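Batch manifest, entry 17 of 40.
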Amino acid sequence: MNGPSWTPEEWADGIRRADRAFLGRALSLVESQLPADAERAAALFTALGAVPQNSFRLGITGNPGAGKSTLTEAMGVRWADSGHKVAVLAVDPSSSLHRGSILGDKTRMDQLSKHPNAFIRPVASGGQLGGVAASTRAAIQLLEHAGYTRIVLETVGVGQNETDAVHYVDGLLLVALPNSGDDVQGIKRGIMERADLIAVNKCDGSFAEAGQRAALQLHESMKWFRRDDGWNVPVVQVSATEHRGLDDLDEALDRYERWVRGTGSFDARRADQRAHEWAQTWPQFAVEWALKHPDAAGAYTKAHEAFSQGQSALGALRSAFNA
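Output type: structure tokens
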């Protein structure tokens, strides 16, 4: 990535002022796959220091067509109007040719994108599974340094394996549709077990009655997923286009945030996310470091050859590095 020759300190100051030019460039920096940009990003985060902890991160997931972007905009405008600084990371599928974002959710959140208290960033998934992008964690942290207190991570929505978002957010909102029992069954176990709140969207017009049935089915289904933390997952009927049920959803979100902060679940989740960040980052860094050091690089190459010949990864690494 080519860009202005700001020092890390200048860049950090610009981000703390929430200067959109600095912030936009920084987000592009952490998305870059170039080794030089990785070094610049590391220097930037060193200059920024500890990440502020006064935000609330909300993941929004659900099947394609559930109205995630419409609901995100409707709720985002409410929060921005009330004084929150709202940031949205909308993860989109990637083009198989240039790896860029295909859908561009920013174009579908026209009202929110123009709000002075809001910032929207479409992010290409880069083909990563789980509904998020590889740069998600760094992007969230940059937004927190810029003073955004309500951060929304809208997942790709390409299927039911959207559970990776829990490693980045404080709460997960599942958006469902008011169609049939088959759709409720189609949500599957993984995401149902992870959801902290459920919104049945598009409960308007001829779908109003179907929305009531879907909400009841989901409420009954949640009884099968007993949570250790004691939280009872609320199911709310909404219409994002007609702005119905948004007060109920806002109240449920506020109640959930107060509950996780009051019970210590908030701090526990953040600690788990930090552990997950370390577990993800350390192996990648170790490989990069090994390739830069001749002795270690030789052991790595030897281990990889043994692995390629059928040995287990752990056995290959132990035998090569202990030789």
